[in-house]
Amino acid sequence: MSQKQEEENPAEETGEEKQDTQEKEGILPERAEEAKLKAKYPSLGQKPGGSDFLMKRLQKGNYKSLHWSVLLCVDEMQKYFDSGDYNMAKAKMKNKQLPSAGPDKNLVTGDHIPTPQDLPQRKSSLVTSKLAPRFKRFSCLSLLSSWDYRHATPRPANFLIFL
Amino acid sequence: MFPKLSLRSMFHGAGGGNDIQWCFSQVKGAVDDDVAEADIISTVEFNHSGELLATGDKGGRVVIFQQEQENKIQSHSRGEYNVYSTFQSHEPEFDYLKSLEIEEKINKIRWLPQKNAAQFLLSTNDKTIKLWKISERDKRPEGYNLKEEDGRYRDPTTVTTLRVPVFRPMDLMVEASPRRIFANAHTYHINSISINSDYETYLSADDLRINLWHLEITDRSFNIVDIKPANMEELTEVITAAEFHPNSCNTFVYSSSKGTIRLCDMRASALCDRHSKLFEEPEDPSNRSFFSEIISSISDVKFSHSGRYMMTRDYLSVKIWDLNMENRPVETYQVHEYLRSKLCSLYENDCIFDKFECCWNGSDSVVMTGSYNNFFRMFDRNTKRDITLEASRENNKPRTVLKPRKVCASGKRKKDEISVDSLDFNKKILHTAWHPKENIIAVATTNNLYIFQDKVN
């Protein structure tokens, strides 16, 4: 309540007091916001620039983890036990059902050799950007040489030689 | 000397952000509201001549647009930008050692100056930088003796006559190929790349380290800045951006999360942990709040084309620094001061951590940066006037002059003004680019690319 009064008063001041008010207003909005935040989250760390927060930020690459205290860190955990765990998490997030493993559904773990159809889908990187909608996607393998899928590399004997 | 430019847009006499009337030119991208994450644009960059415009997105794709060559007879407007090439630059990866995913999002694209017929650019995600060669092919050899036109080999015994193969024109094909892959040099996420004025080396910066590479050498790089403390408990700030000086090949700057910029001279020592200059504006301790450090974190640093000034972007303002004066900026422009009274909710919805970029115009007289609600702002350094414009499909008739927008901070809202509370914080313009020679700007909203140009009579 008192917070609101603080914010309302400066708006009412006029004239010579304006400059003074503006200086105060520079402080008040931020402090008022700070008070709001602390009221909502009393456990927020005292030192926002503390090293724990920066560490979390470095792991995740997300600046937010810099400032949230541990309790409020919602789903920031990006660590996975291994790649299988990672794939399962991704599959869950997309609500994908793993296709059933063929006619025999009561498989004992270890009896079934995984096939590409059974594994959760990796996200497709082959879709053309919407900024270039009618463009045929140029497919390029990550080879360190120019790769042209339309023409086989001409053999040296077929090159034109200009004399 | 500048046949293509109208008098108005001559390099030296370019009017300020307000003398120019900005018009809608083009918009690229899908209209649908449901934006796929892969389509979020993550970087925009003109090449050195301005003829090419590259965009990178969260899906690891690069799309390059090329400006049409103007028809000199009808110069109603400057050439339009059309798709020139698109390719998948980076793929998602998984770091098995740390059990972390590596996003394919393109963080930055930087063009190399053109040396021959091909174009080169560097693109980077969090961990790997790639040098791409984009080349054109418009002729193909035809009339081989041992090969059919479709590539199948002929049986040599069926060849009865010989002919001379010739080059015939074909539909233009633009090929992109990765020429160098610079990998495994960064433990933390790469936030910047910058090509040196020697055009042989470049730097890449992550949260704690900056590495110097040679464009030809991929298996090693020099570490030139390392701010990682021996004891990670003592970590207080991270590197947020870095750039080479446009003219001095020995000078570079890097900005920090605490709002400081350090200028380093590589001639001083191999490891530039000790800065040559430290740019920091003193803060009034009585003004300090929980948010002070967060909003002072610099999200972008850009040298002026002249090399005398540099511009930094923090959450609420744009500051211009004279390299000769370290203790305070020479100019400060408020981008959206009205957000200062919304910091609490901006912290809760993470917007306070948004990384806005900024850019100079070709003559260094106007600077531009993005804001929320698909607004972007321009500040004219000479006239001290500023303007707020909106990137929206509502004004998408070509040559429609954009109407200036205004945000009302509090109190009575005038007609045509928008109140702070009705701003859409999901519509943010983080990436903008200004053509190096003309008044053409590229503004990226979440998944659309807008191109605006000044009104040509």
Automatic annotation (TrEMBL), chain A:
Residues 1-44 are annotated as: Disordered. Keywords: Cell cycle, Cell division, Cytoplasm, Mitosis, Phosphoprotein, Protein phosphatase inhibitor. Residues 16-37 have a biased composition (Basic and acidic residues). One of its GO terms (molecular function) is protein phosphatase inhibitor activity. It is found in: Cytoplasm. GO terms for cellular component: cytoplasm. Its main location: cytoplasm. One of its GO terms (biological process) is cell division. Belongs to the endosulfine family. This is Alpha-endosulfine. The lineage of its organism: Eukaryota, Metazoa, Chordata, Craniata, Vertebrata. The gene is ENSA.
UniProtKB/TrEMBL annotation, chain B:
It comes from the Eukaryota. GO terms for molecular function: enzyme-substrate adaptor activity; protein phosphatase regulator activity. SMART domains: WD40. InterPro entries: PP2A_PR55, PP2A_PR55_CS, WD40/YVTN_repeat-like_dom_sf, WD40_repeat_dom_sf, WD40_rpt. One of its GO terms (cellular component) is protein phosphatase type 2A complex. One of its GO terms (biological process) is regulation of chromosome segregation. Keywords: Repeat, WD repeat. PANTHER family: PROTEIN PHOSPHATASE PP2A REGULATORY SUBUNIT B. Belongs to the phosphatase 2A regulatory subunit B family. This is Serine/threonine-protein phosphatase 2A 55 kDa regulatory subunit B. It comes from Gorilla gorilla gorilla.
